[in-house]
Each structure stands twice: as C-alpha cells, then as structure tokens.
Amino acid sequence: MHCLLKHRPIRFPTTIVNRQFSELFGTANKPSTSKNLVYEVEDFENEVIKQPRVIVVFYATWCTPSMKFLPIVTGAVKSANNIRLAKIDIDKHKEVTEKYKILATPTIFALNYGEVESPHVIGYRSQEEVLNNIMEWYEKLL
Fold this sequence. Notes:
The chain contains five helices and nine strands; from the N terminus they run E-E-H-E-H-E-H-E-H-E-E-E-E-H. The protein has helices spanning 22-25, 44-49, 64-76, 94-99, 127-141, and strands at 3-4, 14-21, 37-41, 54-59, 80-89, 104-105, 107-112, 115-116, 121-122. The strands form two sheets. Strands 2, 3, 4, 5, 7, 8 and 9 form a seven-stranded mixed sheet that branches. Strands 1-6 form a two-stranded antiparallel ribbon.
C-alpha cells in the first residue's frame, strides 16, 4: 500500500529520532547510556545532509498507509544506537521531496552525508521488514 504524489500540494519540517540499535552493535546486554532524542529539524542541510547514517522516511498526513507506517518505522529503530530517523512530511518539504524524486509515500531509504546509500523502499511494510532493511543498510555504512 502506498499513495502516489501526482497531484498533491507539497510543503516543509522534519523530525529526527536518535535511538539505540543494540542488536546491530552487539550491545544488547549492556545498559543504554544514550537518550532518545526527538526534535524538529530547522536546517535540513546541516541536520540531515551533513550527517552520517540517517534513515529518512517520506510521508504524507493525508496518506493512510503513511500514517500507519510511521509508528512501525519508529518502532523499528526504538532500540537503535547511533541511528537517526528523519521523518519528512512531503507537504512541508517540497524541495527535499523533489531532490530525492519521491513519487509515493511512504518511502524510506538511507542517506550518508546526503548521498543515497540504499534502494528506496516504497509502501507499507511490517516492522520486521523495516528492521531488516535498516540493519542491512547500516551494516553496509559502517
């Protein structure tokens, strides 16, 4: 399930979630020292593009599959370590949406210093699928 963007208006803010990914980094039995961090991105260039290893998910508030997918992708990175999740509302971020050629929502992929480092995964996915994609992408980026 996904929503095509063909004739939708497009706007701009982004939220980044920084979480711990214990299984990937072998810290599952160690206590976490990092805090979960959620904040609105004011400067996409500095807060996302100039950062290593950022998972981005493009969504639309009017798209039911997007709204069902956001808690799943957030849950998939819930125990993450050094993983940032940028949630990008396509109606609020026209320039970014166009730059990355987003044609449907939800769309998720990995960026490393602004360069696309994974295939675009389009449409609703299970938490297990999303977690597997993220783990695979991060292993390649380490």
